[in-house]
Amino acid sequence: MRYAMAIDTKKCVGCSDCVVACQIENNVPIGYCRDWVTETVSGSYPNLDLELRSERCNHCDNAPCVRCCPTGASHIVEGGVVLVDGFKCIGCGACIESCPYDARYSHPDGYVDKCTFCIHRVRKGLQPACVSVCPTKCMYFGDLDDPSSEISELLQNRKWKVLAPEAGTKPQVYYLI
Amino acid sequence: MATRRDFIKITGLGVAGLTVGGAGAYQMLKGASLWDSVTLGDAERVPTYCEVCFWKCAGWTYKNKEGKIMKVVGHEDDPHCDGRLCPRGTGGIGMYYDTDRLTTPLIRVTENGKQSYRKASWDEALGLIVENMKAIAEKYGPESVALFNHGSSGDHFERLFKAFGSGTIAAPSYAQCRGPREAGFKATFGTSIGSPEPTDIRDTRCLVLIGSHIGENMHNGQVQEMSDAIDRGADIITVDPRYSTAASKSKFWLPIKPATDLALLLAWIHVIIEEGGYDKAYVEQHTTGFDRLKHHVRRMTPEWAYGITTIDPETIRQTARLMGSAAPAVIVHPGRHVTWYGDDTQRSRAIAILNALLGSWGRRGGFFLKEKASLPNYPYPAYPTPKWDWKATLRGRYPLADEAVTNALVDASLPGGEGQEQMIHGWIVTGTNLPQSMPEKPRLQKAIDSLDFIAVVDTMPMEITGYADVVLPECTYFERYDDLRAAPHREPNIALRMPAVAPLGESKPAWWMCKQLGERLGLGAFYPYEDYSEVLDWQLKQVGSSLEEMKHLGVKRWPRKSEDLYFKEGEAVTFNTPSGKIELYSSELESAGFDPLPNYTAHPEPPEGFYRLIYGRAPMHTFSRTANNPNLTDLMRENDLWMNPKVAQIWGIENGQKVWLRNQDGAFTSFPIKVRVTERIRWDCVYMVHGFGQKREALSRAFGQGASDSEMITTVMIDPIMGGQGMRGNFVTFSIEEPKQVQSL
Amino acid sequence: MKEELIVSGRSLPHIDPHLELWHWPIPAYLFLGGMAAGILFFAGLYTILKKESLYPTAVKWAPFLAPFLLILGLFFLFIDLKHKWFFWQLYLTIRIESPMSWGAWVLLIITPLSMLWAASYIKEWFPNWDWKWSLLNRFEALVISQRMTLAWAMVLLSVILGIYTGILLSAFNARPLWNTALLGPLFLISGMSTGAATIMWMSNDHAERKRFAQIDLLLIGIELFFIVHLFMGFLAGPEVQVESAQLFLRGHFALPFWGLVVGLGLVVPAILEILELRGKKIPVAFPAGLILIGGLIFRLIMVEAGQFTRYLY
Ligand SMILES: Nc1nc2c(c(=O)[nH]1)N[C@H]1C(S)=C(S)[C@@H](COP(=O)(O)OP(=O)(O)OC[C@H]3O[C@@H](n4cnc5c(=O)[nH]c(N)nc54)[C@H](O)[C@@H]3O)O[C@H]1N2
Ligand SMILES: Nc1nc2c(c(=O)[nH]1)N[C@H]1C(S)=C(S)[C@@H](COP(=O)(O)OP(=O)(O)OC[C@H]3O[C@@H](n4cnc5c(=O)[nH]c(N)nc54)[C@H](O)[C@@H]3O)O[C@H]1N2
Ligand code: SF4
Ligand code: SF4
Ligand code: SF4
Ligand code: SF4
Ligand code: SF4
Ligand SMILES: [Mo]
User: Fold this and answer.
1) For a surface tag, which of B413, B472, B742, C142 has the fewest beta carbons within 10 Å of its beta carbon?
2) ipTM of this complex
């Protein structure tokens, strides 16, 4: 099993519903977030290009945050999902420094927090909160090891990219372009 | 005449129900442990529909075991939302948890010449309102008490007003919003558009957006269907001086010079007629006035439009052909907030005509034929007939106004002058933040100063509450019953809103306030129930459901009574126009003395050193109502001013720098606004999101964040046809230093 | 024009607009760790080489500082933890791939070791010292008899500690400035050089001072060589590394780095030492103090600047 997310930048409108939904679902305190939306504008008026991307932890196959964690608080569970155990975390910040995507943050209670791929929902057969709320239905979540899953098919048939591949982390959030 | 009311800026006594702020307090209030996440397992859910905007998506409110609201999610069967709320709906629980909420009635007091609010009991506050309503009714008649409303609370107050004998009722959703398109489409097709718009976006092959910024305008169903359309490979054409989100998804972006859309539309009509791209059979069968239209647009070539709009003629032709090839599965979107330049009904007419030529009305992928569940009215006694109502406030103006015109009510509240007497002497305002929603603030202030009395019903200490003599705190939509939602759609359907939790503090639902007021006004016969749920149950039983059933269902759908979503091939259709046909040439406009065919007229241009101020929506906010919402301010705290790099260079303004704005009338913004230097906008205009620059300190998150577009809209261009307040004829310049004398209100 | 912005209003504390998670405690901790490693290294080395009598400061006196430096360093690390009272979690596991983990373990071992070392010389400081309990006195005798073993352990551990203080940063590929194999050796050498400078400063013995001045000169030479190579590497690297080099070549770290670290922290002390070796009278506090301050600023800058650099996508 290899859980992954694909986000269609052709459909995303940058509304940030995924961000509020995550905040509410996961009790992320006001002022913090596990996901966020970036906008890239290139070109000059009137020949412009705009890309909107909902970003979060990439649940990297080669996760430096897990490797550098001195306590094992950062760990990997089923489907390659990278989690942080708040009770093991000492808040040293090594994992934050190690993540090329700035996907982790220091929770006001001290431990480090980040996207969990909503594993608590996925284990119940639900989609992650952000995916389930997205009004443009531009987010897809599923198992890449299953070749017939919607996400596998999308990645086979559409052009895609991942963020900062040169960082060598093998990210598992794909952007359809 | 009443004494001048000071706008009360201070955090009046008891305005802030809960004074603690910040993340911790918010979490505490939510009663949630930071280590848990909200799982669905042990939660209970009750139905609601969202009140964060007027799309009214149905959803479920989830509560945990302690009875705390955990979240709200879209209702899977709801045609408005298809199981997904927009960010504002998802963050709607912030409305409930906002620590700045109004929780007690407030009464204005003057002590040592200084005005402030004091907490009052319900009894006292209601008594004061009743006393004033009666006094005004005795002196001038009940018609002289006017109601300004928007949203669900308005339904209850409307009934109260009708029982009281006043039909002087208006909402900003007409003359500040949809009015012109309703008038324009009604004149053409005999039907107005209404809400939600019956645009068949999901099945369209070509979507034409004229300023309509779907994606930023987060009206849920439209956003979802636009995304479906993108998936299906539909082409989008966006006309906008700004590279909107929708523009970025478009095959063609036409960066039009603002205020010139009518010329583009006429040129499109020209091309489609001249090149024969229109739906000939449809036009032949259903329309009148084609020949006159053809003659009318004969000289309105793309080359002519180029000089006006700056859009290259070839692009105009290509886009017209694209529409033609997609017809009839094409939508030239009527837009929603269309009060732009004062000739908006005519622009909407041109849009309607274009749709008629393309045969999209009543066709798949164009406009579907909507249907609405018919709910019988609760058997209230007959309402008295008022001696006059909002129509009288038009004073012979705006012949095609179909709904009340807020600004006409404001005019009618001004003291006599030019032979016009003051018709209105008291206001009740509910669910609308007039100082932000209505331009021409000085005029609004003057009208309010002329009143004997003004009461405001709101959930938050918004700017409008600062003008009130009495403030009534309404509980949020999570804490109350309201009318059933029965809006037209592809399938008739209804949705229930019910309380998930008890009202916070002493806040109360609007129905309760109205019942109290009604009984005190001697109108008890109109309130034969203890709880509003009885009314809903009665209504539901008439249509074969019940409150009990709806508490479980949340949303109920019925099969259509009328047969089809679309016209059948060759079907004879009678349109609700004088001729029974789609009127390309409007006999109604002609007889009212207006252009029966739309004409382009040039609008004033920005003076040297000024830029046209345009504005719009951010997907995570609704006007000013969400400006203090903890979840949504977390996404966007303040608005910014979009400025083309060329303009920034001329002014030496850097990205992120704060500037004050001054408009052509010398008005300054109260607060500075951060400049966003971006290629996404033309150089003859600047853009900002509406709803920011709040002036009440009681709004702890929103106060002083960003600037208010409304403060810069001191010149309006009134649509003579229906009274709409065109707001985009204002020009601003920049002040790097804080203005010495802030001239705004 | 290219615009990149976060439209969902992200402003995570210490992360936006750029990472500023590790403030002075981490570089201070790295500085103290490196300096302690240097001191312990030379103490161990000259013990193994049986040159205690030639270099008494290095072997006997300077190591007294080490436990204090290490404990202070650990304290800085501790105050930088955001979830402090879970710190014991560090010692429930050994994470081979985590420099932070082996740093914690190395410190756990080398700190008591350095205490033992210092304790074993305490009677040479205070001839009247008495351990009060006979058990302790016997233990002291045991330690003294095992000095050679201890010395080997110290050399080994101090090298690990020294490397660790460099590797800690260079393990973070995510920060292009740190993402270089040169950083480990550079920190190791710089730690050694601060250790050597401390010994030189403390020493009263002319020969010992001279030896450590020579060592220092050598280390400074190596450091300068590494720094030049570091930047050459960056400039030949991918865009993000070129950008990180630019921070030092014309960005706002340029002056502190070239002026304070390289100029005052390396070149000036080197010149002073050369002059001294040539017989000029120069108060030893000057070159030694400059080296120490330079070493600290070097770490402060590297930590702060490293957090400034990031992948762009
Ligand atoms: N300058 C400018 N003016 C505009 C617009 C613009 O873009 N720019 N847009 C125009 C358009 S399209 C429209 S539709 C109008 C919208 O105009 P309004 O509906 O007036 O807009 P809001 O600012 O959302 O004000 C809503 C008020 O209702 C309160 N409220 C929210 N929920 C409840 C509730 O449950 N009960 C009660 N009693 N009150 C509640 C809020 O706190 C707020 O004070 O504005 C128009 N005016
Ligand atoms: N998130 C969110 N969504 C909302 C609302 C909200 O408050 N928040 N409000 C809802 C309501 S009530 C309404 S009425 C709608 C309004 O939403 P729409 O009807 O979509 O929008 P408008 O306000 O008419 O238009 C704003 C756009 O018009 C462009 N524009 C400005 N001047 C011109 C011009 O001269 N010509 C052309 N072609 N374009 C121009 C602006 O650049 C901007 O992109 O949004 C609805 N949806
Ligand atoms: S909810 Fe969907 S459309 Fe909105 S920003 Fe997130 S991914 Fe994009
Ligand atoms: S995105 Fe960052 S936090 Fe997530 S797995 Fe990759 S490196 Fe770790
Ligand atoms: S902050 Fe916590 S999760 Fe991150 S590396 Fe340190 S102990 Fe591991
Ligand atoms: S998967 Fe869950 S935790 Fe991750 S961003 Fe989406 S909602 Fe948040
Ligand atoms: S569109 Fe959004 S804000 Fe409007 S009713 Fe639906 S969920 Fe609520
Ligand atoms: Mo509107």
Assistant:
1) C142
2) 0.93
